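FAQ

Q: What does a record look like?
A: Structure on top, sequence underneath. For example:
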């Protein structure tokens, strides 16, 4: 059965809870999505606000404090907000790939080339120990141990080599404090679980992001052997093809969404999972005129209209005013513009309740920077 791009779009939005806001709790949503990308503080809050009805940002802050949520480097080598079980069972799969990175010539201009990885790791373990430690403290110890190397590169290497997570206060609601790091196991009081099957992780991916190709799975996870993981699932998956004839896999017990379902306007956070979790992103970016992903690296965020990327926005706060500037990627109808303005005003009220809101819809293609 061949699936149209619109079926893939509506199915993705339905599984991402972007067609209508959900009654799931914050931990339940994190579990369903297999985490939210969170290397910056605001995006997971925007992502949860866009997906959960009546979302209370205090649920994230409380979760980080009571350790029912954690910020940890996982898929694609980036920080994700996840539940502890996912931290413990996904990290062992991700860790081997992370550990290869620091000793390549391209890492910090070869700053670690020539050092023995096992020796560097041993120094990192001795430095970090079982208690949380600020990055600045780690850097000072790195400079003492390796005076002829870049201390920042040494610290980055330790953070790749050791299963670590970020502890509060960073990541709480509107708290952009500098990172404090802890080893995963002492923070969570539980051992890593190396026995979690990759196939089960991929089945969960399909439930949140499918149908998807093995290239999509690899782009999301950065793990090898996706074809084997699919084979291991056996009849728990079914196959489709897309408009280009590529094989797509999906959980056998899930239905596809009606392509005619209405899709409300959504303003997502930069680096939102819905945009980053496929090799072929046309199901949400639309045609090839969409901006490259690097355009979203400077806190520029996507606007979805009818389920597809139709604009980008950025928020500026100054002198008591929060300005949300939007650059359409195509001409909008008056109805579309009104819907975007309404959702933008609601987002500003959520993110910047103390500031006077100002929504500015610019000419198509205009620079969102003032």
């Amino acid at each position: 059965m061949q699936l149209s791009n619109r079926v893939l779009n509506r199915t993705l939005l339905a599984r991402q809870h972007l067609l209508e806001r959900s009654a799931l709790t914050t931990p339940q949503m994190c579990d369903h999505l297999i985490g939210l990308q969170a290397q910056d503080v605001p995006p997971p809050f925007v992502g949860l606000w866009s997906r959960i009805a009546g979302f209370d940002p205090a649920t994230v802050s409380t979760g980080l404090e009571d350790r029912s949520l954690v910020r940890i480097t996982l898929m694609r080598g980036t920080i994700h907000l996840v539940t502890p079980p996912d931290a413990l069972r996904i990290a062992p799969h991700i860790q081997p790939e992370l550990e290869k990175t620091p000793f390549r010539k391209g890492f910090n201009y070869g700053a670690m080339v020539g050092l023995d990885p096992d020796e560097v790791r041993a120094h990192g373990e001795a430095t970090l120990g079982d208690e949380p430690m600020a990055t600045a403290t780690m850097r000072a110890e790195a400079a003492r141990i390796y005076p002829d190397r870049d201390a920042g590169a040494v610290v980055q290497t330790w953070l790749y080599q050791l299963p670590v997570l970020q502890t509060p206060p960073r990541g709480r609601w509107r708290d952009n404090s500098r990172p404090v790091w802890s080893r995963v196991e002492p923070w969570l009081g539980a051992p890593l679980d190396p026995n979690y099957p990759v196939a089960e992780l991929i089945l969960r991916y399909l439930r949140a992001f499918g149908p998807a190709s093995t290239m999509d799975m690899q782009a999301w996870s950065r793990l090898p052997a996706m074809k084997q993981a699919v084979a291991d699932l056996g009849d728990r998956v079914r196959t489709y093809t897309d408009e280009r004839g590529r094989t797509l896999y999906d959980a056998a017990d899930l239905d596809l969404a009606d392509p005619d379902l209405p899709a409300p306007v959504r303003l997502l956070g930069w680096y939102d999972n819905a945009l980053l979790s496929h090799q072929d992103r046309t199901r949400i970016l639309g045609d090839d005129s969409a901006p490259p992903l690097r355009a979203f690296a400077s806190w520029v965020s996507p606007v979805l209209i009818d389920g597809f990327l139709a604009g980008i926005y950025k928020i500026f706060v100054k002198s008591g005013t929060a300005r949300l500037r939007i650059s359409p990627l195509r001409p909008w109808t008056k109805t579309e513009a009104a819907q975007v303005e309404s959702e933008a005003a609601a987002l500003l009220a959520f993110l910047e309740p103390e500031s006077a809101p100002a929504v500015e819809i610019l000419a198509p293609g205009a620079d969102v920077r003032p």
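Q: Is there anything notable about this one?
A: The mean pLDDT is 94.
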